Target: Beta-propeller fold lactonase family protein
Amino acid sequence: MGKKYAAYVGSYTYIGNSKGITILDVDTENGTMKKKKEVRVNNASYVSASRDGRWLYSIADDGIVSFRILPGGDLERMGKASIRGMRGCHISTDHANQYMFVSGYHDGKVTVLRMNEDGSVGEITDGFYDKGIGSIAERNFRPHISCSRLTPDEKFLCAANLGIDQIKIFRFNRETGRIKLVDAIRCELESAPRFLRFSPDGRFMYVISELKNYLSVYSYDGSDGYPKFELLQTISTVGKKHSNVNAAAALRFGQDGKLVLCSNAGDNSIGIYDRDETTGILTQRVVLPISGEYPKDIGMMPGGKYLYSVNHETSTMTFFTWVPEKNYFYMHTAPLRIDQPNCCALVELPE
Model:
């Protein structure tokens, strides 16, 4: 029998009819998803699975909710942990699932939590409130931590602050769970670095900038105990013909790391890029519409044949067939209705 997958879509619950997390059965052969059930979490604006696919974590108004992922894809609620701050917007974990890092858009805070042996979220080990002033009222004026991830060697924590156009670099102490600020990448003024991801081999960091609508490629080297980042490239997230008002949104890798995917609100499109594994440089292949509004999250299904888009403003998910030899994708099934979706975690289910 082939591998089985489930998708978990987090939604706002203050408007619409969503309960919080929608569980979907995933058909990787036909590139479709089907609603299975909903799980109640207040304003599940971001969900993230552990690296081994055993646990799912969700943002909630009052902290982080943890679940055990069952063999059929259902969720068993394990508990809730406070982050002692305003509601988070992003979650990441280390490879061993010993620590969690929560980003705070509203209060500009990074929170580090130690994980319990059963996969639930434990105590806070450290936190950092960023400071500074940007240039554009509200969106790019005050600190907004939108994403924080460890470098692949897990020596440093990188926190993207779209409010002050910086990526703060912290040294991470695995024994204590403490972080110490050691450097900062100062991005272009009013670029708003939103999300960052590292290549599978750990040599390159990719950053999507919300307001300037481009992807940045950095080389990374932490071999001598100090973080070294060098900007190699910036490349537009939109095509030659695009909407006049845009905001770059999601950033993902294809299954094998050879493709990079991004999305654009306003333009309501997905861009697909070839990634040179040796140099890290990106080459744009195509940017096409997603048949919805505000694609907050996107992804490629296992096998690399199908794409999906999580469209916040139209409360839909749309599904596409990727035709690499012709550089285009097309919608192959009807949109799936999900109220106020924000993100999607696609997980290989445990046996």
